[in-house]
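thoughts on both lines:
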Amino acid sequence: MLSRRLLGWTAPALLLALAACAGQSEAQPQVPPADVPVQVPWGAREEAQYRIRRGDQLSGTAVFTVERQGDAYVLVQAFRSTQQPLTDTIRVVVDAATLKPREIERTIAREGEGERRCHAQYQGDRVVVRQESEGESRTDELSLPGHAYESWADLFLWRAAPLERSYRGAYNDIGTCLLRKPGHSLMVLEVITKEPVVVPAGAFEAWRVEARSGGQHQTVWIADTPQRPVVRYDNGTHVFELESLR
């Protein structure tokens, strides 16, 4: 069992920004969960760089990469805080056709305090999550509901969802490697409109998509281009803005 010290060892909010799940604190809209009819928009490799703001203050940077490996995609999110000597890297392996999760690895490194590591393995109808830090460890297991996707892959999954004004759907969002026990909640997606967005990478016509899960509300703007990059993401606390894409 992990000590109180280990359970309390958390990263700044910006480095937890993509985790959307973990418990249904509010009733969700009545949309039944279903598999997302994905159409993968990226190629064999992609790299996107973001700045992360909290209000008017720069709080961090992020690099998102995609790489095809056989019948899977490896999705990596690498965060760096501008306010603390801290990095947070999440590696997610998903099925290339469905974007259903297979494996997650997360490493949080704080200078002078060591590393916090997490590994989650999806195995049929369950996921096993092991967290380690400074010689301590904890293992949890979660039974999976149907139509389940990994929360750390949400921003990639949303890019592959149907981007049209009539689309409204839901799926079960599984939260692993969140510095607490794994959990799940219903994620409801709704495509609202298409509107102009200006970010450091340029000006885009982008689809505005609203995401609601576990009482949280997030907004993402996805460019109306064949590659469908996320150009802006607002999780209610931090705003991600695209700086470059290649």
